[in-house]
Amino acid sequence: MRLEPGRWLILADDLTGAADCAIAFARRGLEAMVAWHDAAGGAGARPGALAIDADSRRLPPTAAAARHATLLRPHLSGGARPALIKKIDSTLRGQPAAELAGSLALLRDAGQPRLALVAPAFPATGRTTENGCVRLWGVPLEATPLWARDHSYNSADLLAVLGSAGLKAWTLPLGQMRGGAAALAEALRAAQAGGLDAVVCDATEAADLEALARASLPLADSVLWVGSGGIAAALAAALPETPAASPALPRRHGGALVVVGSVAEASRAAAEALAATGAPRFTLPAALLRAGEAHPRWAVLRQEIAAALGAGRDTLVEIAADPAAELNRGAALAEALAMLLAPAVGGMGGLFATGGETACALLRRLGVHGIRLLDEVEPGVPLGLTLGALHLPVMTKAGAFGDGTTILRSLERLRQRTGTAS
Questions:
Q1: Nearest to 151 by CA among 159, 142, 160
Q2: Domain spanning 2-237: CATH superfamily
């Protein structure tokens, strides 16, 4: 078996993560797309970078691992194989250890063993790894509101996290990460020779991930990169740039629909900033979404949202933050929100969605089976064009990424790209 030059497969546990990683390759001139896990086989010709949203973050460990193995298996046959990235949440939500363990076992069984290079750091968004532990803006992840709200493990110590799934690993501290490409490559080969399943790579700066990318790319047929948009950007930047024309975005005359389904503080702050501009704002209680069409306000809200978009006004729709709500009901609320908003598509000039479950549920409801990625409006906010019956400009953002003006800046970039800037 040989590595297929220029082809990358990214397996992600949610939509925003899939897009975060694939956009890095689009910026280097490779055709990049995101496909849903149950439609990936119908994506047609293989793009340079294919990111598959496994939609596994809320699954239990065994089911999450099985889904990732199912998605990986078809790509292991034939005379060539892609370079592999396992995209995990940079704050360790979901089941990254079980998913990785399942994928490594499948690779071994297929006669293609790989060493996992675990590098979840994304310094541009405040995520770093020090002494094998995840930190957020310099604070131990366990001491942050993100961890308090949603975590899968007892700690953010990556050796312990990997060990919980039976994986043998050691840490490459910053001193080794910064010791030069030759020494770093030798450390990776030593890990392979030592029979390890994974190495945890410390990184506090983008340069650390860039050094890892340069040292590990020659080993691409025997390693599996595990991380977030940070390592994807470093790997893509180390590749030769391929000139490619970016297709023009369609000019649509309605307002942009901004959907905030995340309870993360960064997303709520950005929503407040948009509302402060006078944009129509619709805050939907979870009880209304659970009631669905039986709720007396349902039909009225549909009409009001459609009217605002049709009048060309950027319109904010958000699920009311409810700290007492069960997180495992997020998928059901996102699906109900998609049902409410679907009739407004005719007056929509674009879509900005934050929160992977929310974005995926809405796009599915609109008949979209994937996204062709075109640009990155800022770190962690890719811009693409939907695939399927609807050709709609769409931007996605992980809930905890960005700051209070992320949505405003992203909408301005959308208007510039579509020629509708005032």
A1: 142
A2: Putative sugar-binding, N-terminal domain (3.40.50.10840)
